[in-house]
What we know:
The structure holds three protein chains of three kinds. Helices cover 33% and strands 21% of the residues of chain A. Chain A contains eleven helices and ten strands. A six-stranded mixed beta sheet of chain A has the order 6-7-8-3-9-10, sandwiched between helices. Chain B is an all-alpha fold. Chain B has helices at 2-6, 23-36, 38-61, 64-67, 86-117, 120-133, 138-164, 181-205, 209-217, 222-250, 254-259, 278-286, 291-325; strands at 71-72, 82-83. The model of chain B has no long low-confidence stretch (mean pLDDT 83). At the B-C interface, helix 2, helix 3, helix 5, helix 6 and helix 7 of B face helix 3, helix 5, helix 6, helix 7 and helix 8 of C.
Amino acid sequence: MTPVDGFENSNKNNQDGEDMSINTANQPSGLANVAAKHAAQKQPGNAPLGSGLEARGIHAWFGKHHALENVSLDFAAGTVTALIGPSGCGKSTFIRTLNRMHEFIPSAAMAGEVLLDGKDIYEPGTDVTKIRLQIGMVFQKPNPFPSMTIGENVLSGLKLAQIKSNINKDDLLEECLTRSGLWSEVKDRLGAHAGGLSGGQQQRLCIARSLAVNPKVLLMDEPCSALDPGSTLRIEDTIGQLAQTMTIIIVTHNMQQAARVSDYTAFFLSDGGPGQLVEVGPTNEMFSRPKDERTENYVSGRFG
Amino acid sequence: MSSTLVNRPATPEPREITTKPRPSDIFFRGVLTTMSLSSLLILTLIGLFLSFRGYQAFKTQGFHFLTAYDWNASTDAGQKDVFGLGAMIIGTLVISTVALLIGVPLSVLTALFLTFYAPEKIKKSLITIVDLMASFPSILYGLWGFIVLMPMAEYWAKLIHKYLGWIPVFSVPQPAFTRSPFIAGLVLAIMIIPIVTSVSREIFGQTPLDRIQAAYALGATRWAMIKAVVLPFGASGVVGGAMLGLGRALGETVAVYSVLNIVFKANWHVLYGFGGNIASMIVQKWGEASLSESKALLAAGFVLFVMTLLVNLLANFIVRRTIKSGR
Amino acid sequence: MTTLTATRVEPQKPWKTTPKQAIPNFLMLGLALIATIVVVAVTPMKGKLAYAFLFFVFGTSFQMFLTWRKRGKAAAVDTFAGSVMMTGGILVFLPVASLLWTTIAKGFKGLGLHVFTQTMATTSYSDPLSKGGLLHAIIGTLYLILIATVISLPLSLLTALYLTEIKGRASGFIQFLVQAMSGVPSVVAGVFIYAAILLSTHLRGSTFIGALPLAILMIPTVTRTSQEVLNLVPNELREAGLALGATQWKTVATIVVPAARSGLITAVILGVARIAGETAPLLFTLGTTDKVNWNPFVGGQNALPYYVWSGLRDGTEGGVQRAWTGILVLLIVVLSLFVTARVFGNRKAKR
């Protein structure tokens, strides 16, 4: 983890990491508590070695506009990292450089490296479709393919990439839907069209779809912002389960969500220029005693 | 304070808002409405006059006008004229089918190419060229088709006949390959490409971006994405575009007339050198038509009018529905 | 891992194929070329078609092979699809190129100053090209355009105004009618005018009669484009006029229409371009002449498309050559109209 220059907060915390300061204006309401609870409950997982992702010196441009400046972040295998920050600070741009979706915009350019398994995914000659099979993505707005049934949607990744798999398709279907928490609700109507599901169900379908190609890393770009609280909580449970076997990076506007689900949190900020990584650290530390004043201002609600 | 909570006044009915219309505005509305209905007037007049004048032909020929194959203006006073559009309707169908079969796939490929494959820098110029193609006069296609395309098309027809002549539609009673429905269909295909490409391109361009991104995020190649997302989305719009092209092909006159050997006989053999469609037949027979024959020609015009009207209305309906529903 | 300080980082696009990476592809294309030449030499397949077809087959399969080895089946299919797309695009642009090239090359031969100053009054189509010209056809076309515009513009504009300003209950119906009208084939419009006017009265073909079917063809185009243009006029302008106490018609006449002026001109230009090249309706309604005819109501007329048509039907070498020259002039006219409309429309949009 690469902290950026900041200064020490006057330490008002007790040994458990809870903020004991009397000045309640400085206190993010229970965020630190939530984060601490998550840290305490975290189970060790069995994420495969090498499923960690490292971003080194990432810059992003749209034409002449410098959108992201010198972001370096490591994502350890089996962890959940939340990217937080106000709108427009480059979080979504950053996450899109991680699975090479940034390059779809015609004016896009970048610099830096993203290492998966030690290998730079931007290396010339890399097959980008294979990269995307290993680094999956779930989007803000659920987008199942309307011309396919539920079952076909889940398995669509295999078809699109023409992956020959010896695994029984039905087993894979059930496994992915179970992992994303949707199996019990749709197991009797796998042949129905995906459009009939609710928003939360569609998003879980999209998660199942991403799982079917067995990615090492799952990127989630504000996956719950278009959903109701009930679906949101269900998906957050799912994230916790998924982190056992893969690395998850989630962009979120909702700090409570970041506190609930993530092990590490990275705070992005733009002062009108390119977005920058201000600070990154274990979630409960970020919310209780952040090292940078800007981080503290954000998590305590002073802006954003 | 508390009494207002108990006794809330009833919500009033909305007031009717009227204004005294000014004479100039009434006049204004009246003029606009009348003038707009002029298009209704024109369409109705077209239908009326053509059917009225052609009525006699329908009356004497009966339904056979559409199905009979002979067109004989009798020169003897005592003989009855026999007019039957059948051969020309078949000719229209044959030529239009060839045009669609060649033109629509090429248009779809071009539309996909322009939307998803063309480099940004030349995309705009290519689109402009296709649009310009739509503005070429049909007589240009006729002239070019006759002088430039004909020799090549004849060669291709011979090739097709050599290798595929065992298929009935490609056989020919005699080796006469010049000025065939195949060549006419080829010219028409080129003529309808701009409009079908344009409509298809518009539809493909409206494919929802989030679905496209979802496919790519799953590791799809460009073609896999097109097959999974773009084609299901745009299929009905492309059908609408194809029907618009068909509408154009049905009524095409001078291009067909320049290229095709207009003979009034049904011809299924696409490679065999004669044929016609209703529009070109009307032109061919016009010069020396007797009075009753002209009436029959007008009736033929009426049939053509109805055909193109139906096809175009259906096409517009389909295209509009696809764009609106954004499916 | 150090943080970069003063070094400026350059934006890159590592996903773009570098020339070095493209070398195997060029190699494959070269191999395909060799294979094509060999096959053509050895088998009975001959001619340009054989070359093109074989090159496509070999080029595509070799590229597919390369991609299959490197990236697997899905990528190979993608390569095939890309190749087909590009071929489709080429197949479409070839006729366009040929049309333009032939017109220019062949038409140019017959050009000369006399072409624009003489008519065919004393020349026949098969006479040498240094005699005769298409002045009468140009004047005829201009006349037809003028009359057709005078007739169709008021109708189109008022219809468009109804649809955008009044939006009455008949709007859906009228919209539908305009659509239906746009599908009427030009030959039907010509036959209609013939049936309605020439058969019922003693009138013979003339410029005026010839302009009528052209007006019918023009109305849908001009209406539709005018409608789009009028809809672009911001509502604030209309509201400003009404708020000042103006009546609706005054608002429309003095504010809305002038605001849309350049767009409306574009609409007219597009309509004119549509009809300038129409031949079929003229065959029924124009009568014909080889001289310049300034009278729109009496006596036949000629026009550029008709001139071309006559040359083609004449069939002699001279006739066909004149047809090419006429078509060149017509094409220049039509293309200039379109380019003007485009430039005009873009300039307006920028404002």
